[in-house]
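Tutorial handout. Part one gives the primary structure; part two gives the three-dimensional structure as tokens.
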Amino acid sequence: MIDEGKVTATAQISKHFSIDTKENHEEKTFESTIEKAENTTQEKPKKKKHTKKKAIEKSEKQEVSKLKEAISFMTPIVIALIVAILLKTFIFANAVVPTGSMINTIQEGDRIIASRLAYINEDPKRYDVIIFHYPDDESQLFVKRIIGMPGETINIKNGIVYITDASGNTTEARSDFVTNCVPTGDFGPYTVPLGSYFVMGDNRNDSWDARYWKKKNVEKKKIIGKVKFRYFPNPSKIE
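Part two.
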């Protein structure tokens, strides 16, 4: 025999348990949702921070890449400049001739190159064309031709140059390079000091050279180099 009171009580307990279970499930579900939301909220700053870090790294890589490109571009230019400076300082001398004192060999405005190494292992030779510091004002550079050697005596009569060596032998200087106009004037006698040279321009009648200077010779140590060639406007060898 079934006790209706007990059945009713049991049904009520079951119902109450079912309600509790449902409520507990809803509470757990709500708590789980809150926890997920909190976790998501906590993860977002991390993602932003990570993205910002990547952006910084990318920017730094771009800067490094640009720097490498700049260095790659500038390196050949810097090397070329260094080489040019070294060549100009130790090997070649570049000059623009401002006057016509060396016509016809060198014209006014010609650009010439001289070798700084020409006289390292040997002495200058007669008739070499040289660049040197002007003895009366060493801030100026002159271009002339060597006529008299150390120890020789120079005499000029009616524009003709006579050279007497230490033994007393006298010869007439070459004149094939002299400007076509007939040289004039007298000079000397003048004995060239040892270690020095007597120089003149090829355009004898229009050259400010050793004949007129206060100090009438060029010391070897003041010679910058031997003129080798003209590179502008008409490239050619200078002799």
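Part three, for discussion. Residues 45-95 form one domain. The radius of gyration is 49 Å.
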